[in-house]
Amino acid sequence: MARGMPEDPELAVQEPDRRSPGNMEGKRNIQIIEWEHLDKKKFYVFGVAMTMMIRVSVYPFTLIRTRLQVQKGKSLYHGTFDAFVKILRADGVTGLYRGFLVNTFTLISGQCYVTTYELTRKFVADYSQSNTVKSLVAGGSASLVAQSITVPIDVVSQHLMMQRKGEKMGRFQVRGNLEGQGLIAFGQTKDIIRQILRADGLRGFYRGYVASLLTYIPNSAVWWPFYHFYAG
After folding, report:
1. Domain assignment present for 137
2. In angstroms, how far is CA 77 from the centroid of its own chain?
3. CATH code, domain with 60
4. What positions belong to coiled-coil segments (predicted)?
5. Residues with Cβ < 8 Å from 76, sequence gap 6 or more?
6. Cβ contact 47:111 at 8 Å
7. What are phi and psi of 49, to 5 degrees?
C-alpha cells in the first residue's frame, strides 16, 4: 500500500487531498457560529475585558493624534514624541488619559454591534437562508446601532482630550482645575456636556454622525458577506 494512504478505501475517497494547491476544501468549510451557539456570559465578560486592556494601552496615542490634528500648524507640538513628552511634563500620566473614563462607554457600542449583528442575522434567516443577504443586512444594521451610540460619546471625550493647562485648544474650556481625578473628571464631563447643549443643542452631540454612517455602514455591510464567502 502506498505510503500515507488510508487502509479503508472509502476513507481514501472521502478525505480531501490537502497537499494539492488547487484543493480549497482544506482551507475552507469553517464553521459559522450563530447567536444561539455563543456562550453569552463569556462573550460579554471576556470581550469587554480584552477591549479594555487594548484601550488602556493605545488611548494616550489616540489623545496625542487628536491634539496634533486640531492644533494650528506646530504651535504646541512638533510631533508624536514631542507631544508625549510635553503632556507628560505638564499634566503627568493623567494628562494622557483625559476623557478616558467617558471614552470607555464606547465599549457598550462594541457589544451592541455584535449583538445587533447576530440577532439581525437570526431575524433575516426567517426570510432568506443566503449568507450574503443575512450578512449584508446584519452588518449594516450593526454599524447603524454602534455609531448611534459611539458618536455622542466620542464628541464629549474628544472635547475632554482638548483640555490642557494654559492655552485653549478646543471650542470649549472646562472651568476650574484640571486635575482629572475621581469626581473632578466627571465634573469636567458635565461641564462639557452643558456647554455643548448651550452652544449647539442635542445636534451638537451628533457632529459628524452622517459622515460616520457613510463610512462604517457600507464597510460593515460589505465586509461580513466577504468573510462568510471565504469562510464557507
Report:
1. yes
2. 27
3. 1.50.40.10
4. none
5. 67, 83, 86, 167, 169
6. yes
7. -65, -45
169 assigned to some structural domain: yes
Neighbour-count burial of 48, counting CB atoms closer than 10 A to its CB (0-12 exposed, 13-18 middle, 19+ buried): middle
* Count of domains for the chain: 1
Residue 21 inside a domain? The answer is no
- Copy the grid coordinates of residue 199: 452652544
> Range with the lowest mean pLDDT among 102-111, 134-143, 153-162, 166-175?
166-175
DSSP at 162 = T
The residues, any chain, with a CB within 8 Å of residue 168's CB and separated by 6 or more, are: none
Helical (H) or strand (E) element with 38 = none
Q: Which three cell numbers stand for residue 99?
A: 476623557
56 or 180, greater pLDDT:
56
Domain enclosing residue 176, as ranges: 35-231
Grid cell, residue 55, equals 484601550
17 or 89, greater pLDDT: 89
Task: Calculate the CA 97 to chain-centre distance.
Answer: 18
CA 220 vs. chain centroid, Å, equals 12
Asked if 55 and 107 touch (Cβ cutoff 8 Å), the reply is yes
Cell numbers standing for residue 27? 482551507
Residue where the block lists cell 462607554:
105
Q: Is residue 9 a part of any domain in this protein?
A: no
pTM here is: 0.73
Q: Give percent of the chain above pLDDT 70.
A: 77
User: pLDDT per residue over 148-181, tens digit each?
Assistant: 999 999 999 999 998 877 666 777 887 765 554 4
